[in-house]
Design brief:
Chain lengths: 112, 121
């Protein structure tokens, strides 16, 4: 059971917009800690997609955006493409656990 | 180009030990923290532990699931971090990723390709 809660799966048709939610608590997202997102394409290592709630690293298309409010965060993907099909993970810091970087359980995005 | 390359994975029996290495290229290794993140087959990501840079005291912290069994160390002269795993359990079977940990913001901006550790008799 993950500290951060994500829907197991979402889907959308090419060109559509999808959102992936990430729900935490008062010891992580709600305590003001930033949320970060990673994309894991099939058979590959995860890659940083969004950091600091809404910042895209160089090379990440602006079709990907992030937001945070209260104890939750969201990743939005617009203009869905076939190669966006992947697993997406949110991650934050939790002050109730030693050291702890915590992940969501991951969301499988299917492009229909 | 920043690169992290893991090595040392393989098949090991329950109760035995194994050490993974993570060699870094393309950045000032001594200035950065390194975390290990693992992923069991078909499962999600789990943070394992961190070793901070000398500037942050070189301190380590671990997830509860591995505390007391796993030890992270580093040799800045070799730009290499290590994950020493002892008293291995079948549930430690996973791909282990070495990641550069931007410690102030607590996120991972570069990932290695991963090393598979299989714990089985």
């Amino acid at each position: 059971q993950s500290i951060l809660t994500q829907p197991p799966s979402v889907s959308g048709a090419p060109g559509q917009r999808v959102t992936i939610s990430c729900t935490g608590s008062s010891s992580n997202i709600g305590a003001g800690y930033d949320v970060h997102w990673y994309q894991q394409l099939p058979g590959t290592a995860p890659k940083l997609l969004i950091h600091g709630n809404s910042n895209r690293p160089s090379g990440v298309p602006d079709r990907f955006s992030g937001s945070k409010s209260g104890t939750s965060a969201s990743l939005a993907i617009t203009g869905l493409q076939a190669d966006d099909e992947a697993n997406y993970y949110c991650q934050s810091y939790d002050n109730s656990l030693s050291g702890s970087r915590v992940f969501g359980g991951g969301t499988k995005l299917t492009v229909l | 180009e920043v690169r992290l390359v893991e090595s040392g994975g393989g098949l090991v029996q329950p109760g035995r030990s194994l050490r993974l290495s993570c060699t870094a290229y393309g950045f000032m290794f001594g200035d950065d923290a390194i975390s290990w993140v693992r992923q069991a087959p078909g499962k999600g990501l789990e943070w394992v532990g961190i070793i901070r840079s000398r500037a942050y005291g070189g301190t380590t912290e671990y997830a509860a699931s591995v505390k007391g069994r796993f030890t992270i160390s580093r040799d800045d002269s070799k730009t290499t971090a290590y994950l020493q795993m002892s008293s291995l359990k079948t549930e430690d079977t996973a791909v282990y990723y070495c990641v550069r940990d931007l410690v102030v913001m607590a996120y991972f901006d570069h990932w290695g390709q991963g090393a598979l550790v299989t714990v089985s008799s």
